[in-house]
Write a structure and sequence with these properties.
Blueprint: E1 5-10, H1 15-26, E2 30-36, H2 48-51, E3 61-62, H3 65-69, E4 74-77, H4 81-94, E5 97-100, H5 107-116, E6 121-124, H6 130-145, E7 151-158, H7 168-181, H8 185-188, E8 189-190, E9 205-211, E10 217-225, E11 228-236, H9 240-252, E12 259-261, H10 263-266
Parallel strand pairs: 1-2, 1-4, 2-3, 4-5, 5-6, 6-12, 7-9, 8-9
Antiparallel strand pairs: 7-10, 10-11
Helix pairs in contact: 1-9, 4-5, 6-7
Active site: 158, 162
Keywords: Amino-acid biosynthesis, Cytoplasm, Diaminopimelate biosynthesis, Lysine biosynthesis, NAD, NADP, Oxidoreductase
Binding site for (S)-2,3,4,5-tetrahydrodipicolinate: 159, 168-169
Amino acid sequence: MSEEIGVVVTGVSGRMGQMLVSEIAKHPRMHLAGAVERAGHDWVGKDVGTAMGGAANGVIVADDPLDCFARAQAVIDFTAPAATVAFAELAAQARAVHVIGTTGLSDEDLTRIKTAARHAVVVRAGNMSLGVNLLTVLTRKVAAALDADYDIEVIEYHHNKKVDAPSGTALMLGEAAAQGRGVELREVSDRGRDGITGARKRGDIGFSAIRGGDIIGDHDVLFAAEGERITLRHVASDRALFARGALKAALWGQDKAPGEYDMLDVLGLSDD
């Protein structure tokens, strides 16, 4: 697909929302078709460019997502679980590609998103970066190569404003490790250690969450056995990499059949 596409950004006042607006403005094949905020937000009714502290760009922040979605080919959504589920249903009505970077989604949320994906393309990933998605592939392969004598720990580092833990990326990596081991993550996940916890259970996949300062997002996958340790690491130094990955996903999804995809599909790294 070579023509320009219109993109709506939800949660536009947030850190990722503003980054997406900036990246869309520089993209040769995209334009900002709409900007959405919750009803009652200070930005509603204002030009998004001036609300961001820059020049006006002619796009007025709205609180009616369906009206915006109906005029766009893609929706990019880094918001909160309840909002994302509602947006998925509306994006499906509009037949717009819905790119989801929201984390903290429950099993019920995921079921509703899957239902929406029967009618439109949904690209959902806990992390949109190329490097992290390569890391998931490597994690799966290393986990498959090493037996349960190697304890697996996923360590994630984020800024002090992040509200969910483990991060969506950490869970992606944990799922990759579990797939490599041929087990269900929910059956071997080890989280929230505190007090007298007893010895670590063989085969468990542990999670540790660190919050501090302005850390964008670092992730380690540690494989530890008697006498040696292997660490796979990804460090994010620029938040724009997540926005650029989301834009890539929005373009990729334009000629795809309805369904739920992830960044491995977008990047051609899926085993399917």
